Fold this sequence. Notes:
The structure holds 2 protein chains of 2 kinds.
Chain A: H1 16-19, H2 43-51, E1 127-138, E2 147-152, E3 158-164, E4 169-175, E5 191-194, E6 225-230, E7 253-258, H3 264-269, E8 273-279, E9 305-315, E10 321-322, E11 335-338, E12 341-342, E13 345-349, E14 352-359, E15 366-372, E16 375-376, E17 379-384, E18 387-395, E19 398-400, E20 405-411, E21 420-427, E22 439-453, E23 478-489, E24 492-495, E25 505-510, E26 513-521, E27 527-531, E28 536-541, E29 553-554, E30 556-559, E31 564-571, E32 576-582, H4 585-589, E33 593-599
Parallel strand pairs in A: 1-4, 3-8, 9-14, 13-22, 23-26, 25-33
Antiparallel strand pairs in A: 1-2, 4-6, 5-7, 7-8, 9-10, 9-11, 11-12, 14-20, 15-16, 15-19, 15-21, 17-18, 17-20, 21-22, 23-24, 26-31, 27-30, 27-32, 28-29, 28-31, 32-33
Chain B: H1 2-7, H2 13-16, E1 54-57, E2 62-64, H3 65-70, E3 74-80, H4 88-103, E4 111-117, H5 125-134, E5 141-145, H6 148-157, H7 165-168, E6 177-182, E7 187-192, H8 197-206
Parallel strand pairs in B: 3-4, 4-5
Antiparallel strand pairs in B: 1-2, 1-5, 3-6, 6-7
Helix pairs in contact in B: 4-8
Amino acid sequence: MNTENITPSDATNADPADTVSATTLANPPSQPDQDSNRRHFLRAGVLAAGSGLFATALVRQNASAAPPPPDFYPPPSPPAAPFAMPLPVYGAKATSRALSPSPTKIAQANEAGRLPHQRWEQFPSLKLVEIRIKQGSHSFHPQYPVQTIWGFDGICPGPTLVGRYGEPLLVRFYNDLPANLTGFGSPEISTHAHNLHDGSESDGFAGDYFSPTKFGPTLTRPGMFKDHLYPMIYAGYDQYPATKGDPREALGSCWYHDHRMDFTSGNVYRGMAGSFLLFDEIDSGNEKDRNSKALRLPSGIGTFDIPLIVADKRFDANGMLVFDQFNTDGYIGDKFCVNGKIQPYFKVQRRKYRFRILNGSTSRFFQFYLVLQNTDQTFTYIANDGNLLPAPLQMNQVRLAPAERADIVVDFAKYPLGSRLFLVDRIEQLDGRGPQDGLVSPGTQVLRFDVDTQPSMADTSEVPATLRALPPITMSEVAQNRIWTFDRTVSGWSINGQLWDVDRPDAIIKKGTAEVWTLRVSGNWWHPIHIHLEEFQILSRNGVAPPLHERGRKDVVAIGPGEEVKIFMRFRDYTGKYMMHCHNSIHEDHAMMMRWDVVA
Amino acid sequence: MNMRRTMLGGLGAAVLAPPLVMHATDPKAKPVLPGSPAIQSPSALSQTYFPNSIFTTHEGRKVRFYDDLIKDKIVIINMLLITCRDGICPLMTANLRAVQEALGSRVGKDIFMYSMTINPEYDTDFMLKSYAKGFGVGEGWSFLTGPKADTEVIRRKLGFYNLNPEVDKDPNQHTGMVRIGNDKLDRWCVMPGMLSAKQIAYAVRNLA
């Protein structure tokens, strides 16, 4: 490995597309002509859709795409007037002074039978958080009945977890869900902090699910709780000990959700998802920070720094949440929730806000616009998948596949008091396999911003021209190239023709190496592919450099029909079982997931 | 663009309505307090989901699909054809035989296994009996044949379908996975049929 030329303070980054020969791929692989009634689109249209940069509706080449057969979906949800509830916003989840019993390296009595915490001795001082997964009562909308959800601390979304680099965090997840709950999902849990850099035993491996009476195939016993150690180190800890990892690998807007194998889609749909925000001295969470390195982005969790978890849901005639346990293609809802409420409103001051938008849907894609009086507004795009870009971008739309994130800064000082702006989705999606290739207009208003008050204090927050440098792509570190093809098999979804097997690693990767993975989608559907442990950078999308906003670090990449994405990824600091899977969680539960192991 | 709106189908008028309706919320529809009896559990589609169409077992018994085969049971269901072209059916049957072995005496007690033919014209109960015998199938595992139309309904209800009608016509597209469910809990998932018998049996036990 040649890493001598890399230091964390190296702020210059080669354009990934220039660094490697990314233009050699002339044509994406040809596809079997399945679903041919939906394949009559321009290749250019597909590529543009994949790039996420097109701003105008493409001409639909096939306007007769059949809607799903009527028996696949229940009737539409009953009416729910939009903007009837305020957007729920949380402050940070409080830490606990102590946990009883105290956390231990090796799983203790009453704890699910996990492997020992890696690097335990290196983190003697831990911040402690306790979360109880339990039922709670929730109102999605005033016109629907209050109903039971499964949530972290019994709320939907779960509390906002906050981590700070250099301050290791241990979260104790209690599973208080009764074993005899009925309906979709399954009340055993394996919480994944997406996409934290952590040990496999804390990563929410799909086979590591537990309850007081049951345990997954990769645990050794059930438990009341399971401790997850989030070391709050940058990836590259072994490489750059002085800075506790490479600060260019800092994560920002993450989320945590259930990952119980075979039942992830139902469990997350039931409410088990929350935001997990990470800060360091650059992205310090303090817009008045005097540290010269601090960016002073709009700050204050729940005041000017607002996570927006957008997820579609469907309700029956009585207004109760419905799901289809027998659907294998992907499940789409017809009501759009933000932070657990259908189409809420949010009162804002005339100043800058940071919105951390997450697509928390099962299968639905979004393409969001910020609209004032039928006019699309420009906003500042600062982070893709929660990772700050080297420099902000001015954009007027953001496209998000399931699990993708975008941080945007909106300055409401541009708008007079009384203005109403809307976050609008313009994707057309008819079934769970992926979006149509065009856009709809005017689209669906998901969230309304009411420019409500004059700020009491001057807005000193900023979006500097330089945000966070990217770690270099060093091809000499690459120990292995692998190709992964995502396809449909008989009644399931496959990776390289294989279906999920919790016991079978499909890649054995040496710790401390880098690899280049080629991700291909075969067939006429979309797969947002998520890889655990570290972020990757896109070397090429369909043989060319990715669009600007994808030239950062990512942990989910949306790959469309016939597309091919080449990524560079490092595997550092930890060993054990990790996963790559489709984050259309119906596909994930129908076996589009593979285990890979990092070995010393 | 307007035609697109009509194609959104499930998106109700409320979603696309302008914000004028914001005051239309019924003030009486206030959320009830936690703990109130008005709190309900999410509804599940699988309740009253399966029909009671009549199938014949490989032992010649007439059975109602839901009431006799599913109700209050833990079930393992797959689709097969005796003439399975790509060979996955016999492999899966052999694998499920090992699953039956692994689950021991619970099969036939609270766990039941069903293999339904998607080719009922050919796969009669007589044919299925000899097929089952060839695999040494034990108590608690029934091979089912029934009218084609009823079979198609069950197949789709179980999720063994393809959205593309052309692909869906090929019966070989509907084998390979096993549907696992616990009717009492209304809890259902699928697993690849060729996973190790140990893993399938483990998942079934955890569904109880």
